[in-house]
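Let's do one together. I've listed all components of the complex below, 768 residues spread over two lines.
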Amino acid sequence: MKFKVSKSKFFESLSTVQNIVGAKTTIPVLSNVLISAEDGLLVFTTTDLDVTMRCSCEAEISMTGKITLPVKKLTSIVRELDDGIVSVEVDEDNCAHMRCGSYRSKIIGMSADSFPPTPTTEGATTYEIDQGKFRDMLRNTYYATAAEDARAVLTGILMSFEDGKLICVATDGRRLALYESEIDFPVENNRDVVLPPRAVTELLRSLKDNGDLVISIKDKQLLFEYSGLFFSCKLIAGTYPNYKQVVINDCEKVITINREELLAVLRRISASTTTTTNAMRLNFEANILTITVNSPEVGEAVDTVAVKYDGEPLTVIFNPEFMMDPLKHLTSDDIQIELNNASSPGLIKSDIPFLYVIMPLRM
Amino acid sequence: MPGDMVDKPDCMNRSILHVDMDAFFASVEQRDNPELRGKPVVVGAGSHERGVVSAASYEARKFGIHSAMPSREAYRRCPDAIFIRGNHDLYMDVSRQIFEIFDRYTPFVEGLSCDEAFLDVSSVRKLFGDGVSIARRIRSDIKSELSLTASVGVAHNKFLAKVASDLQKPDGLTVVPADPEGVRLFLAPLPVRRIFGVGKTMAATLGKLGVRTIADIQKINMDSLIRSIGENAALHIRELSFGRDSRTVEPEREEKSISREHTFSEDAVDEEKILAVLLELASDVAHRVRKQEKFACTGRLKLRWEDFTSITRQRPFEEPSCDDMTFREMARMLYEKEGRAGRPVRLIGFGVMDFISERTSQMVLFENEIREREKRESISRVLDDLRDKLDGGKIGFGSSHEVEK
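Okay, and this is what the predicted structure of the assembly comes out as:
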């Protein structure tokens, strides 16, 4: 195997895949990147058995072949090389001889035969969506997932393909974020899958503002193809709670607020909360919202914000974090808060097909 | 500053008591088991186990055994000593009875531990007589009602009261003179280590300056003292050497955390075993939190490796909690993150903190999860009842089953 590649493309490809390495050192080859030289193309693959990542770049291939090399080491070496052409030749002992300018090195690799097979999209159910759209869906729901130690399904995002729509749902049992988009697929492809948090992080990192994204579901695998990248992950097993039973569409009282003003007030107010008093009191009156926190250790804080509201006064207690999360990610100027009373769920809506359900604290 | 005149409290006119139970745990054991009386009794880890002495009877102290000494060392010094693991719940009950006696005399009680407290009786002297009379009454109440003895120091500040209570132990009453010259003479012959803040290291440094007793500090040139131990420490011990201490008695020092630890008899490597012990500790902590009718907001794991390096890791609960299952899950989660496969563990502990007594309860979206939390708490409370009925007997989770999970 022998190839020449530009340093920048080599480095970019390695940085793309280098995050996916096996923590289980019991299988040494999982710390390596599989590099295969095919016609005019270098393909880089890493996997930790749960997640697989693959990308490619153009290269001058003088001899095709495959090798695995320690990805972290290789990436840090290539990062430091001078810009220019890197030439690599692999000998029959699986050692890669690398040259760039005056630099020479020999890197000990392992045979490509020991690298686990990569999942393929063959026979999978596929869906197409815009990359930027899907990234927005993840961004506006991910924060509502449960912490890593919770029930496994709640740590991920539910992707529900249902009757021409993709609905992303995340909940930790106390608030729920939902974002839907219309996409085109036949009814027989209706399906619910749960996207694991690692995949969400990776996708948020690498999805671009626009461009095609192909999502495939096959067996227990989810596969993503976008911008020349291939990314696959194991689905989270288990039944996602029936979110439909808690999603309401409207409440009696509707309050319109400027998103950034409210967020600024919430940030100030929540600075006075503590681990033991993570609650704030929201008092809605005609055109004004007063927010109060009271904690035995810190003291108290009060602030007000102008709102559009003409209903009965209403007081409700929320966890400030839960309220700030959606506001931080939405982009609209105004948001709507909808409430019935102090002990039933509240809603936050925006000008996009987004819905946030938040449970109050009992007074 | 004019404020200087008013800020200084009328220190010399206060009356502070330091009450310290004599060999508390050991004395309770000797009280309840006549066959232990007059014998060296050691409460704490077993004679051949790792872990330390929590209390030693005066008979055992004659052999040089003291609290915090490794139990094996205690055994080496006195193989005939009777080692008792002790009954923590019982001691806590007795402790409560002792503090009830304090409360009869003054609301200003600052508990330092379960068997030791400062009492400010300045404002109740009209009711019960001077500090010495109150000290006598408290000692007599403890003796007649609880058949235990306490040593008491009476002085006009906390430092002097604490020094005094230790001087005539056991069953002693020591009164510190009220005038500055009397105080100076009272402190003068005592070793410098009696001053709080003077530990082994500082005592050694002071020894190099020829300082052995508090009298030496009273006489020393301040500049040389500052040069050798720094200004803050020098001013601190100089003030105390003349018995000047303006700290006030702070009542109601609330428990900031509740925790339990376990030292393995052999450094443990078996992860299942370590986890099983940890989960039991977590249950025990939960039991104590419920007894105090509190909810904890944060959980904390402590691990000490075989080389004595320790780590603590903490994390907030999703919601203020007090049930066994939530504590056990937290303990397991923290351990699984930090436990290193195969690395021998010497000590493991679990604790919780940031207590609240009432929670503004976060409501949940899914009905079945509400039931889950309520179920957990009610199961835990049923366990409490069973534990009480079994009177210290063992009831708990099928840990071995849980370990398999």
